[in-house]
Amino acid sequence: MKTALQNLLLVFIIMLSFCKTFSQSKTDGVQIADYKPEAAKSGKDGDHRWVLIKLFRMANSGKDGSDGKAGASVRINIAAIPAEGNNVVLQIVSTTNTKSSKDTFFVDPQKGQIKFIADGGNGGSGGAGGTGLSKDGKKSATSGGSGGDGGKGGKGGNIEVYFDSTAFAFINCPCLIYSNEGGRGGYKGQGGAAAADYTYEPGKGTDGKNGAAGDRGLPVYIRKVGSDKIFLMK
C-alpha cells in the first residue's frame, strides 16, 4: 500500500513539473519550423569571366542561375498533453529527410501558433552580361554580353501530419499552419553595356529570362492515428 502511494505521489510530482515547464515555455508565441532549402547559386557575371573574354575575346555573357532544390519531406506527429489548469498543450515532433535529428515544439492551441515550411528552394539569379570590349588593334569593339537566365524554383516538399487520439480535436486548429509552395524562380541577369567605341545598334546585350516558379508539393496529408480516415489539405 505504501509503495502504491509513493508511486502515485511520484506521478503527481512529474505532472506538476510538466505543467510548470509548459507555463514557463514560449508556447503562446509564433514559432517557425523552416525546412526550406537555401537559395540556389547565382550565375557568374560576364565581367568576372575575364580570362576567356579578354584573352580570346569570347562572348562575355552572364551564366545561368542554378535550379532550386526540392523542399523537404516532413512528417509531423502531434499529441495533446495536460498543462496548467484545465488546459492542454500540443506536443509536436517533426522529422525530415534532410536532417537526422528530430525537432520538438510545444504550442498552446488557444494562444500560440506554429508554421511548418517545406517550400522549394529559390532558383539562383542569372549573371549580368559583361561590358563590351573596346577596339584593340585589328580587333573590333564588341557589344555588351547577354544576361543569364534565372534558375527554376524547386518543387515544394511533401508534408504528412499524424494526430494521436488525444489531439483529434485540433486537426483544424488555426494554430497549425503548413506551407509547401514551389520556390521562386531566379531573377534574370541584365544585359551588359556596349563598349564606348562600339558604333552599332543595339549595343546593349540582351536581358536573360526570369526563372519559372517551382511546382507546389502534394496536398498536405493528415491522418488520425488508429483510424482509417485520411484528410488532404489543399
Could you explain how this protein is built, in words?
There is one protein chain. Strand 3 and strand 4 form a beta hairpin. By secondary structure, this protein is of the alpha/beta class. It has helices at residues 2-24, 50-56; strands spanning 30-34, 74-82, 88-96, 99-107, 113-117, 159-163, 176-179, 220-224, 230-233. The strands form two sheets. The protein has a six-stranded mixed β-sheet. The relative contact order is 0.21. The protein has two helices and nine strands, in the order αβαββββββββ. The protein is rod-shaped, with a radius of gyration of 28 Å.
Give a concise summary.
The chain has 234 residues and is an alpha/beta fold. It has helices at 2-24, 50-56; strands at residues 30-34, 74-82, 88-96, 99-107, 113-117, 159-163, 176-179, 220-224, 230-233. The strands form two sheets. A six-stranded mixed beta sheet has the order 4-3-2-6-8-9.
